[in-house]
Amino acid sequence: MADSTTVTVAAAPEAHAHHPPHLHHHFVSSEQQFDAAKLGMWLFLITEVLLFSGMFVAYTVYRVWHPEVFADASQLLDWRLGALNTIVLLASSFTVALSIHFAQKDEKEKVVVLLLLTLLCAAAFMVVKYFEYSGKFAHGVFPGAGYAPFGEDHGLNYADFDFPYAPQFFSIYFVMTGIHGFHVLIGMGLFTWLVTRVIRGHFSAEYYTPIELTGLYWHLVDIIWIFLFPLLYLI
Amino acid sequence: MSAATHSDLSQRPAIHYLNHEKGLWSWLTTVDHKRIGIMYAIVVALFFLVGGIFATLVRVELSAPGETIMGQDSYNQAFTLHAVIMVFLVIIPAVPGILGNFVLPIQIGAKDVAFPRLNLASWYIFMAGAVLAICGWLVVGKVDTGWTFYTPYSSEASDAVLWMTSAVFVAGFASIFTGINFVVTVHKMRAPGMTWNRLPLFVWAIYATAIVQVLATPVIGITMVLLFLEKFMQIGIFDPALGGDPVLFQHFFWFYSHPAVYIMILPAMGIISDLMGTFSRQQVQGYTFIALSSVAIAFLGFLVWGHHMFVAGQSAISSIIFSMLTFLIGIPTGIKVFNWVGTMYKGSVWLQTPMLYALMFLFLFTIGGFTGIMVGVLATDVHLHDTYFVVAHFHYVMMGGALIALIGGMHYWWPKITGKMYNETLGRIAALLVFVGFNLTFFTQFILGSRGMPRRYHDYELLLEQFPEFAPLHFASSIGSWILAAGLFLILFYGIHSLLRGKPASQNPWGAVTLEWTHTTTPPDPHNFHHTPLVTRGPYDFHLADDVFGPFHTGDGAGDGVGEVTEAPKPEEA
Question: Residue B508: CA atoms inside 13 Å, Cβ hemisphere, count?
Fold first, then answer.
C-alpha cells in the first residue's frame, strides 16, 4: 500500500511519459497486458478445438459405422489438390511466424511483406478450395438432400457414388471444410487489418500483440487442416 | 483502512461509478465491469419476469384437469419458452454476468477484468442472441420442441426453431467470452499478495465455472450449427429419415448441457460460501476443500452427460459407467454442504436476509442433490424418467439452488452495487413466501412424479380415473407457484423502493472482510480502488477483526445503524 502511494505521488506529473500509448489503464505493465492477451487467445483456441471436435466426433461415428462408405466416397476427393493446399497452409504458417520474429526486431518492411505473403497463401488456399467445391457442384455432389452425383471426370463415374451414406460423407466433408474455410476467410480479414496497422506504424518491438495473437490463430487454422486432409482425402 | 470508514455514512464518495458519467450513451458504451454487471442485471431481471410469467401460465393451466386457460399447442410453447428463457437467458448468464462482473474484479483487487471491451461485447452478443430468440418466438412462429431441441422433431418443426438454435449459438459466444475473460482475470489481474489460497470462494467458483463455459459451450455451438444445417439442407447427421442418428444429437446436446448445469450451480455455490463466512463471522471451514471441490465438479461434470440418456438407447455398459460417474459428483458436492454447515457451527450466525437465502439454499439444494442421486440410479431412473420427479429435481437444483443463491447474493451485494439499503422486514417476509411457495410448488411434484405423472403433458384428466390424487397435488403445486410469484414480486417491489427511497448504505454494512467491502467506497470508485490494495490476509479472517476494522471498531464491525435489524453478534475472538 505504502509503495503504491509513493509511486502514484512521484509519477503523477509525468504519468504519460511512463505510460506507453498501447497500455490500457487497468494493467500495471505491458508484460501483464501481453501475458493476459496471450492467455486469452490460447483459451479462445481451446474453444475452437472444441468447436471442431464436435464435427470430428460426427466424422468418427459415421466412419466407424460405415467404413466402406468413407473409403469409397473419398475417392471423389482429389488428394493432389488437398496436398497442394496443405503445403500452401504450412508455408503460410512459416511466413506468419517469421513476421512475428521481425516484428520483435522492429523491421517493419519485412513484417509487411511476410504478412502479405501469408495473405497470399490464404487466398491461394481459398482459390484451390473454390475449384474443388465447384468441381463437386458441377457433378451434383452437394451436401445433404441435394446430393445427386452424375457425369464423369478423371476416369470416375460419379453416378456410381450414389450409394447409402455417401450423402453423409459429403455433408461432413462440406461442413468441416466449409467451417474451416470460413476460418481462413476470417484470417485473411485479420491479415489485411494487420498490414494496414503495421503500415500506419501501430506496432513496435514493445508492442506487437495483435500480430502474435493472429499468428497463434493462424497456426490453429493450419493444424485443423492437417487433421482434415488425411481424414477426408487419404484414408 | 481505519474503523471509521466502515460504518460512517459521511465517508460516501461524491464521485463514484454510478455518477461519474451520465446519460444512456455512457452506459451503452461503458467498459466498466461494474456497469456491465448492472446492464446484465437489468436484462436478466426482465427475462426472469418473462420466463416466470410463462411458468405461472403453465401452472394455471395445470391447476385443474381439462383445458383451463390454453390448449395443447399453446401449452407446449409456454413450457418451451419458459425453459429456453430461464436456461439460456436467465440462469446461465445471471451469476457470472451480474455478480461475477461486478464483484470478481474488486474481490481480487483489480481495476477491471482483463478484457473490458470484450466484456462489453459479450453483453451485446448476449443481447443479439436474446433478440434472435424473441424474433423467433414473436415473428416467425411457434417453438414447441422443449428446450432440448431433440431431433427428429426439432429438424421438422417450424422455422422458428432455426431462430432459437441461432439464438443459443449466439448467446453461447457471450458465455464463452465471459468465461475467457474471467479465467484470464483470475490468472493475471490479482492484486499484490492476492495468492490463490487468499481468493474468496466466490472467485474460485466463478473461475471453475469459467473453465466449464470455455470447454463446454463450443460443443453446443457446433451442435446448433449442425442442427441448423440439418433443417436447412438436410445433411442427414441427426435425422433418422435421412440415415442420421438422433441419439448422436442427444450426446452432443448433453455433452454441453450437463456441464451447463454446473455453469448454473457453481457460481451459486460460490455465493453461498461467501454468505456463510460473512454471516457466521467465521473462517469458512475447509476453505481448500470448497475451493478445489468446485474444480472437481467442473471436471467431473464433463464425464456424466450420458445419465440423461439411460432410456434413450445407449448401451447398457455406457449407462452403468455413466451412472457410477454420476455418483462421484455427490462427493465434492457433499464436501461443500458439509463445510457450509461446519462454518455455522460455533459461529455467530446473523440471520439477515442474505443468510436466510443461504440457509434456504442448504435445504433446497440438498433435496435437489439427493434426488439427483436417485435419478442417477439406473433402475429408479427407468421408472422416474420423464416424470414430474425429474421436473421437481431440477427445479430444486436450478431454482432452489442457483436462483435462490442469486437472490441471496443480490441482497448481499445490493448495498455495494446501488449504495442503498433495502427494507429488511420486507426482505424476510419475501424470503418466507419464496420458501413456502417454492416447496409447495415443487415438493408436490416429487410425489406426482413418483406416482407416474409424466412431464410436459398439457392435461391429466384422463389419468384421474387411475390416479385421483393427481388433481389435488397439481392444484397444491399451482397454489405454491402463486405464493412463490407473490414473494418474487415483493422482492421486485422493495428493490425498486430501495432504489428510489432506500436509506444510504455505508461502506461495509455486513462487516464482511473481502476487498469489495473493506477497500472500496459505497458505491465504488469508477476505478474500484484509489490505490491498488496490498493483500496480507485471507478472505474470511474474522479472527483478525482488529486489523481489518481498526483497533477502535465497535465490536461487531457490522451494521449501519440504518436497517431495522442491525443487532450484529460479536465476532468470536480467535
Answer: 26
Residue B145 within a domain = yes
How confident is the model at residue B572, as a pLDDT? 53
DSSP 8-state assignment for residue B523:
S
d(C-alpha A192, C-alpha A123), whole Å:
11
pLDDT in tens, B521-555: 999 999 999 889 999 999 999 888 777 776 555 54
Q: Is B564 among the domain residues? A: no
Contact B111 A51 (CB under 8 A): no
Distance between A39 CA and the closest CA of chain B, angstroms: 6
CB contact under 8 A, B234 and A179: no
Q: How many domains does chain A have?
A: 1
What dihedral do alpha carbons B370, B375, B376, B379 form, nearest 10°? 130
- Burial class from Cβ neighbours inside 10 Å (0-12, 13-18, 19+) for residue B166 reads buried
pLDDT (tens digit, 9 = 90+) per residue, B280-322? 999 999 999 999 999 999 999 999 999 999 998 889 999 999 9
**Is residue A218 a part of any domain in this protein?**
yes
B27 vs A: CB within 8 A: no
The pLDDT value recorded for residue B543 is: 85
* pTM (predicted TM-score): 0.92
Residue B557 domain flag: no
Any domain includes A22: no
- Residue B240 CB neighbours (<10 A): 13
Domain of B255 in residue numbering reads as: 3-549
Residue of B nearest to A49 (CA): B218
Strand partners, B528: B525
Phi, psi angles (nearest 5°) of residue B387: -115, 175
Q: Could you give the maximum distance between any two Cα atoms of chain B, in Å?
A: 77
**What is the DSSP code (8-state) at residue B454?**
B
Distances (CA, A) of B243 to A107, B158, B235: 56, 21, 10
Whether the CB of A10 is below 8 Å from some CB of chain B: the reply is no
| CATH code where residue A165 lies | 1.20.120.80
Contact B223 A54 (CB under 8 A): yes
Q: What is the dihedral of CA B228, B233, B239, B244, to 10 degrees?
A: -110
Respond yes or no on whether the N-terminal peptide bond of residue A20 is cis (omega within 30° of 0).
no
Residue A104: inside a domain, yes or no? yes
Q: Is B176 an 8 Å CB contact of chain A?
A: yes
Domain tally for chain B? 1
Alpha-carbon gap, residue A46 to A58, rounded angstroms: 19
Residue B563 belongs to a domain: no
ipTM of this model? 0.89
User: What pLDDT does A3 receive?
Assistant: 41
- Taking alpha carbons only, the member of B574, B389, B223 closest to residue A51 is B223
Tell me which residues of chain A, numbers 77 to 136, contact chain B at a CB-CB cutoff of 8 Å.
Answer: none
CA atoms of B327 and B72, how far apart (whole Å): 37
- What range does the domain containing A209 cover? 29-234
CATH number of the CATH domain containing B115:
1.20.210.10
Indicate the DSSP class of residue B519: T
